[in-house]
Structures are given as structure tokens and as C-alpha cells.
Amino acid sequence: MRVLVIGNGGREHCLAWKIAQSPRLKKLYCTPGNPGISSVADCVDIASEDTESLCNFARKEKIDLTVVGPEGPLVAGLVDRFQANGLRAFGPTKRAALLEGSKVFSKNLMRKYGIPTAEFRVFSELVPARRYIESINGPVVVKVDGLAGGKGSFVCKNTGEALKAVEEIMEERAFGPAGERVVVEEYMEGEEVSVLALTDGKTIVPLEPVQDHKALYGGDKGPNTGGMGAYSPVPLFNAGLASRVEKEILVPTVHAMKREGRSYKGVLYVGLMVTAIGPRVLEYNVRFGDPETQPLLMRLDGDLLDLLLATVEDRLEEAEFSWDARAALCVVMTSAGYPGNYEKGKEIKGFETLSGREDLMVFHAGTTLKQKKVVTAGGRVLGVTALGKDLQEAQKKAYEAAGKISFDGAYYRRDIGWRALRGVGSRENKEYRIQ
Ligand code: AMP
Ligand code: GLY
Q1: Which residue, judged by its Cα, is nearest atom 5 of ligand 2?
Q2: Does any ligand 1 atom lie closer than 6 A to the CB of residue 159?
Q3: Given a cut of 50, is residue 284 above it in pLDDT?
Q4: Is 192 in the pocket of ligand 1 (CB under 6 A)?
Q5: pLDDT of amino acid 429
Q6: What angle do helix axes 103-113 and 251-259 make, rounded to 10 degrees?
Q7: What is the DSSP string of 390-403?
């Protein structure tokens, strides 16, 4: 098979690395890719947003399956365009990708179909939004409707912060048209878990749960980022919780999308808050998570290409795979200043010594080649991911490896996995366990 992966982040390096292990693979391309991806795929410099050039490339190269990494091309209708040209692409159509493309759409869908989520109101004008926030007088979460690269949600501790957020969105128009409508929602207390499921629209195959650390600083403090690290399995996610998530969230969501004439196919990523009353949806994404994909696929025992094909060909019920019993943990190394402004072009040293290990992968994200040297080119630079007999060992190995890598201004959190590991020994983390 001839396969194309679209994107250039850590997620895409991981997808390409796993697809490259499939015995069915003949040729792998990635657009635009990065230096890490170039060790398993031919990288071709076409932007992820350039649907027309991507489609022409796939036709010319007779690509059998295209796997789309980021949400932008999906929401813009890449899959529809490929299908119209007789090409197979993994991911939802434009109509179905609205689940991530519009928070207003997804919140209204959940309300209509009784899918558990935070209570909310939608506003398209500043004055009523302010009035509503003032009437609540407590923490709320303000979200822009459209895509905002992970920066469009404001968790506001008090009325003042919430008023500032709606003003930034609706008055200063900091998010442009994506902020024409805002969702103001109830603040939920709990533990966040990412559940990704493959679905062909009739069968749903939940993958192992992953926990992502979105905040910049240790203890999950500071501004939100795209994700500073992730791990799997998630100890709090027991069989009872898994079954509730499937019954109360995954099945009704896929069903609701069908009922709305927006049949969903691809990977459905549900960001969950596990609260004292059960799992509730924070958000939907219509693609693989980054960095969730890195620990998840390190643990996948099976042929990813087969699974993706089964999804596209509506025969997911035939899917066969299992999970490595070991734990996986990914530490994201970032450029100083991320998620704000940061410098690029810093030489990265030390990762050559880490290659060739079965239990360790250094996935490239924001990297590029400059005079044959690998240098930084983005905010999130590398995802150092290790397998260990348990989370503690995976964490130890990932940090040992990260310690061997250096570049000017390198920053990473030192506590990825703490939520799961704090319970080790004391067994205190039973707070959100669902029986
Ligand atoms: P979202 O863009 O909807 O995924 O939100 C980004 C992050 O904000 C989530 O991962 C949570 O950490 C936090 N968040 C979003 N909605 C809520 C909520 N209703 N209550 C508490 N935290 C939230
Ligand atoms: N790690 C969060 C995301 O992929 O949206």
C-alpha cells in the first residue's frame, strides 16, 4: 500500500513511525513532515492547508490511503475533496468535523441528545454575555466557537477574569471570526482523561485512555498549552468508568451524528472530565491527540495501517489488536517562551545516542534541518516517550532520556504522570473512582 500522512508534529511522527511497521506498507509519504519523520517516510513540502496540491499529489502518486493529522484540513473538507476524486482518506467529512469546528454545534448536540457535559449558554453579543457572567458570580469557562489552535478556552476563577475573556474575544476580536459566538459554561471539578475511539459509523472501538498535561507548569498550573506530556494507562479509569463512557458518551455521540445526517468516521477524541457524579464531556476533537498519540501508539500491539483501513472501509468489527501491558509516558520538550513567543533555530544535541531502542522513541515536533543539523523550529520540539513495566519506570526512563537532550532554552515539566503516581504507596487517589 502507498500511504500519505498529512502534518508535521509529534503526532504525525508517531503515526508515520507506527504505519511504517506494517507489512502491508509499500511506500510512505508525509507532507510536509519533519526531520524525525524523514527517517521513516519521504517528506514532501506541501502545506497541510493546501488541499488542492495534496489531492493532486495523492492522485499522481496513486496513494491508497491518506491519514490526516491536524484538525484544520478536516474541518476545511479535505476528506470530501479526496473522496470526490476517488481517493481514500482517514477522518471525518466536513459536515462531521463540525464536532470540533464549532463548540456551539457540539454543545447543542450534547444538550439535544442528553450527553453529559457542563451546563452552558451561547452568546453572539457582548452585552448579554456580560450580564449573564455577572449574574453567575463564580468560576466559569469561556470558549470561542471556532478553531483557535487550542488557545480558545479560558478557565476563569472569577467574574473579573470571565469579563476580560469575553471582552478580548468579542470586543477586541482577538480570535477573528472564530470568536463571533462564545460559549459560557459551568466550571467542572475533576480529573481530565482523553478517550480516543475509532469508529466507522456503526462499530466503535475505544482505545486505551490517556491522560494529558495541558498546563505549562508543574502541578498543572499556569497557562494552557497544546500538551506538555501524556501517559497511558490511566489508573483511575477502571472498567466501571470505561463502560459508562461507552454507554453514556461514545455510543450516543456516534448515534447523534448519524441522526443529524453527519455520519462520523475516523477517530473520535473525547476530552472528559471525570467528576464526582461521573464522566462529562469537555470537548470533542475529530483527530488523534497530540501528545496523547505518542504513548498510545507505543502501547499498541497490532497493525495501525490495518486498523485505519478497516475504519475507512466500514469493517471495524474485524479489527484485531491488543495492548502492551507496559505503561508509556511522553515528556514534551519545548522552546523557552512557549506557548507565547519563542526563538527558533537552536541546535538540538544528544538525541542520536537514544536511537535504536525498543522501549524509547524521541518523536520530533517543531524541528527542522539547518546545514545538516537538527534545530528547533516550533514551540513543542520533541516528545520523549518511554515504555516501562509500570508508570513509575516509564517516567524514570523518559526523564533520563530527556536529560541527555539539550538545546538553548529547552524547557519541560518535571512531573508528567504525577496524578497517577501520587497514589502509589498512599492509595489516596480514589476521589474520582466510579464503582
Ligand atoms: P477545551 O478547549 O474545551 O478542551 O478546553 C481546554 C481545557 O480547559 C480543558 O482541557 C480543561 O482543562 C479546561 N476546561 C474546559 N472546559 C472546562 C470546564 N467546563 N470546567 C473545567 N475546566 C474546563
Ligand atoms: N493534547 C490535546 C489535543 O490534542 O487537543
Answers
A1: 289
A2: no
A3: yes
A4: yes
A5: 42
A6: 100
A7: SHHHHHHHHHHHHT
